[in-house]
Amino acid sequence: MTALERQEEALINRVRGTLETGKAVAVLGWMKSNHDKFTRRVQKTGKVTFYEKTPDRLGTSVGFGIFRLGSTHSDFERLSVRTDCHPTVLSHGDIKRVLKAACQQVRHLVPVVTEEKVSSVVVPEPIVVIPTPKLEVSTEKVQTAPEENKMQEDVAGFIVAFMKEADKNGGLVGKNVLGDIRRAHGIKHSNANLVKAGRIVAVISQGRTKAGKYKASEKMRKEAGQLPEVATVVASDDPFTQARAFIARGPALEEQILQLQIQLEELQKKLDQVTSAKELLKKLTDLTT
Length: 289
Prior knowledge:
By secondary structure, the protein is mostly helical. The protein has helices at residues 3-20, 37-44, 73-80, 92-103, 155-168, 175-184, 191-196, 218-224, 239-247, 250-288; strands at residues 24-28, 48-51, 62-67, 173-174, 200-203, 213-216. Strands 2-1-3 form a 3-stranded parallel beta sheet, sandwiched between helices. Strands 4-6-5 form a 3-stranded antiparallel beta sheet. Helix 1 packs across helix 4, helix 1 (3-20) packs antiparallel against helix 10 (250-288) and helix 5 packs across helix 8. It starts with a helix and ends with a helix.
C-alpha cells in the first residue's frame, strides 16, 4: 500500500469513527454545484453537514471537519482550535469517495446507494436535527450553467487526479489518460494549452516528435502539496486550553509524515531507475569489450 493509499485509509477511518460516536462530520467550502444524489442523501440524515461559507465556529455536535480545496488557512486555524479537522484540503471528488467508503461501514446510517439504483430502492430516511449556524449563502458562485456546459471546471480535482495517476506510473501520465482526466473534471483547455500555462510538462519519447506523456510541473507540485499550516497554540494560562491546542496538532503531524513518505517513495522509484540504468550500462559495456 502506497503512502497515498494509507493517507486515504486513515481519513476514511477517522470519518467512520466520528460517525460511530454519534458526532457529525462537517465539510467546509462545499458549493451547491458539488452535490450529487449521494451527498444530498447523506445530508438529510444530519450526520454530514455541508458549508459553502465557513462559519465562525462549529457546534459541539460536530466531531470532525474536512476542508475542500479553496478553503483558506485562516478558516482552518480558526475552527481547528475547538474542532478536530483534517489538515489537508481535498477536492470534492475525493471528499465524496471518502464519505461513501466511511458511510458504508457505519451501522444505523442510511445505506449508500449507487446513483444507478437509487430510483429502484426505497429506504427510510431518518432525520436527525443538528443545530447549525444560520448562513448567508452567496448565490454568485453557484449559478446554473447552460445545458450544453453543465460540467464546471474543477481545477483542484484535476490536479489531485493527475498526481494520483502519475504516482502509479513513475511520475508520467499518458496523453489519452490525461484527456480522460481533463474531461472528467470539466477542463476545457487542451493538453498543449495546459503545457503553455505551465501546469504540466510534455515528455517526448526517443524517436518521436510529439509528446505522448506528461508530468506535473513544479507549479502543479506546489499546488498539490499545499497544506494548511498547523494551528498555533493559543496563548493562555489555562493548562486545559494549552493541552487541547497541543493535542490538536496530532493529525497535522501525521499528515506531514505521510506526505514525506510519498516523497520518499517517489525518490526511491527514481533511485531504482538509476540502479537499473547502471546495471544495463555495465552489461552493454561488458558485451562491447
